[in-house]
Structure formats: structure tokens, C-alpha cells
Design brief:
CATH superfamily of the largest domain: Jelly Rolls
Order of helices and strands: HEEEEEEEHEHHHHHHHHHH
Radius of gyration: 22 Å
Structural class: alpha+beta
Number of helices: 12
CATH class of the largest domain: Mainly Beta
CATH architecture of the largest domain: Sandwich
Length: 306
Amino acid sequence: MDVLADILTSAGLRKRVMYHKQITAPWMLQFPCSHSMGFHVITLGEAYLWKGDDEAPVHLHRGDIAFMARGKPHRMSTHPDPDLPLEPEAPPSQGEPPLLAMVNGIYQLWNEPIHPFFQALPDWVILRAETIPAHDPLQATLQLLSAEMTQPDLGSQAISDALLDVLFHLMLRRTIQHHMPAHRMWQRSTQDPYILKALQLMHSETARDWSLDSLANAVGLSRSGFALKFKQVFGDTPLHYLTTLRMQKAMELLAHSDQYIEAVAAAVGYQDALSFSRAFKKSVGKSPREFRKRNQAELGLAWRFA
């Protein structure tokens, strides 16, 4: 059981955009991203990242990666001038050399409340090209992606699509290991065999009728020892973490299946719809039916990813 993969799946991760953007004039691009996370890779020229109206732009060069946490509207430009015009709708003139080219990947995490993992991510991680060793998987992925983008061939779209996912997960792993303010928490969760086993059990058997005693027995610790160890790593109780995980999975099922509320309740570990509905509303702020109704109403909105 890959705990991180399950967190991403339960959070309703959706990919929408991957393109090789070429800018041939002094323009500025806007990225609303209120419900998204993702990255920009500079493949040609240089760019300026505007993380906020009151902040000086970050100067990016070829090969640099800007990795963005969820919900961070920002701008990218070809020049450190805050008054550059927005990119026009018309395509660039044929033969005009680009000032800037970049690959953009955007992933949506629209379910709220989100898993605490995402709340611990830093707003931005800027990875400089010169800090990526030649043998690093990131470097190899970037080179493959650049080749498919600049010299497309049979199957390039499918290959590029897969490489985008690889790049996203490599950046996410690197962020956990080196850049998260709470990175030690997530590192310890995978390095401690007792905590890792507990996470794997909760993620793989979410519907099981877990108690603190049964979890402690399953990982081979005393009840008090396990509770203390989990609290020290996550700052939370095992059963509260389990509830959060169940609500994440429930939101995904409610949004992307036609299962009855009773079936969703059983799938995430509740014996009846009433107790599930109470727990869901306490966590999410809406009843399961209200949540499903809101989701259906939002499916046609521009910001929602398919």
C-alpha cells in the first residue's frame, strides 16, 4: 500500500492542463489556480514569477521548476514589469522567435476539507536547474519531456502525459523530503515501521471496524505506546486521522459514483447511514446529500476539472 498514492486518490486529484507554452512578445500570463496545485518548467528563455501583488517577482531561468501548492493564484511574465499586458488570444506570428517557453502541469484538489498532508505543503518550492544532479530522476524526466515536446513523434502526447505525472510525483516527493515545514512528520511516518504499518492498514482497510486497541495490536505496540507514538509523529490521534481518511474517501465516492448513501457509509466503515451522515456533516459542513448536490451543480463550472 502506497500511502501517498492513496491520499492523492482519495483527495480526488484531477489533471487538466499540460502544454508547452511559447510566448513571443512581452506578455504576462495569469493563473487563477484557486482550487489547484501544479508546476511550471522553464524550457527556453527566462521568466518572472509573481507570487503576490506585494512581492518582488522570482527570476526563473531555463531548467528551473516552480512547484505550487494548492490555491495560490499567480502570474508569469517575460519581464519584471508589473504592468505588462496580458497575453492576447491571437496566436503568435509564424516564424517569430519565442522569448519564453514553458511546460505547465495543473492538478485539481477541489474536495474540502482537504487531507492535512496538503495543508502542510509550502506555498512554493523553487528548484533551480543547477541544483538537479545529472543522475537525478527529475533530470532524466525533464530531458525526456523536453524531447517529446520539441520533436513530437508517434505517441508523443501519451508519453508526455505520462511524463507529466512522473514529474509531478517526483516534485511532490522532493518537497516532502526537503522543503515541507513539517517534512519531518511525513518522513518519520515512513521511517517508523509501527507508524507506517498503521497508516498502511488504515488506508488499505478503511472500512474495517478499527479501534485504538485493534490498531495497536495490529502493529505490535501497547495501546498507550501506540497512541503516544502516533501523536508525536502527527500531532493527532489515530482515530481522528482515520475519520479524516474516511471522509476523504466518502467525498470521492459521493462525487464520482451513484452509490446510495448507505453503500458509501458501509464502504468507509460506518454501520448505518445515520451515524455516517452525522460524522460527515461534522467534518465537511454539509450532509452527504447536500455535498452530492453541490458537486453536481458545480460540474459545469469553468474552474472544475473533468
